[in-house]
Fold:
Amino acid sequence: MGAIKGIRGGKFIVVGRVGMDLSPQNRAQTEYATEMFVAMGGSSANIAAGLVKLGLNANLVTCVSDDAVGRYCLNQLDHYGVGRAHVRTIQGEERTSLALYETRVQDHQSVIYRNNAADFQMNLSDVESLDYSAFTALITAGTVFAAEPSRSAAFRAFELAKEAGIPIIFDVDYRPYSWSSPDEAANVLSRAGGLSDVIVGNDEEFGFMAGGLEKGRAKARDLAATSAEIVVYKMGQHGAVTFASGEEIATGIYPVEAFKPTGAGDSFMAGFMAGLAEGRDMKSAMLRGSACASIVVSQEGCAPAMPDTEQLESFLLDHAGPTAGPTQ
Structure:
């Protein structure tokens, strides 16, 4: 099925990590923190939670460690209504990811504990156990490709999704600390992008894949012309350009007082997908994704800050409107 048709089906299999997030209270610097806000994190889990909050169905595929942090993540998936029948608990030295990030923009600090990450233990059996025909689209983020056996498993999931005729939605989500080298990351992420029906990334990520920031937009345009149905080229505060059906659609952002820089991309993906699933046109769906991103950066936490439909509609009614999009 085509990308839009699959997204409108509203049943997503989301491949990638779930973790625990810790944030110092009262916008404190980490080294002076006395209290922490605890929430579910991990790009794929955040996207899944955002989809469910907006009325869609999402199931996660990943691995968690057999310990209190892993059990916390399982409980949180239940709390958000994300299916976890394909989340495997593993024993050994691997641990569920832990992210410590500050609720502040100025001098923001993030510390990510990803050594021997449990989610990188996702293997071929994990992805081959799914009935892909039960879903209408697959979503994943770039970190799932950063190490083995997760990388091979994710590419196998792509193969099985294609065999089942469901579209692949790929958030480039390049995190240098997860990769052994930039060259490896560029090669692997470019391969994943070439297999995807919908690709979402920022200007730096497309530039990285293309071999230079100045080549990023051309890379996005080329992917839309040769392999992907939809390519979203995000440009931070300047908005985004979406390449789809031979058109280039520019959209702006909804300015807010940001409390933190984290979670925006995950919330954007959920809002964008939900907008398309509701049958909205491309520009409207993009703006709903942008609104979701603004909502999340203006609140504490990532998954907890993801808006539901009522919160999103209220924000859109109350906000003066988006900025003008970037020039072509």
Notes: The CA atoms of residues 59 and 85 lie 8 Å apart. The domain at 3-15+44-62+123-318 is CATH 3.40.1190.20 (UDP-N-acetylmuramoyl-L-alanine:D-glutamate ligase). The chain has a mean pLDDT of 96. The radius of gyration is 18 Å.
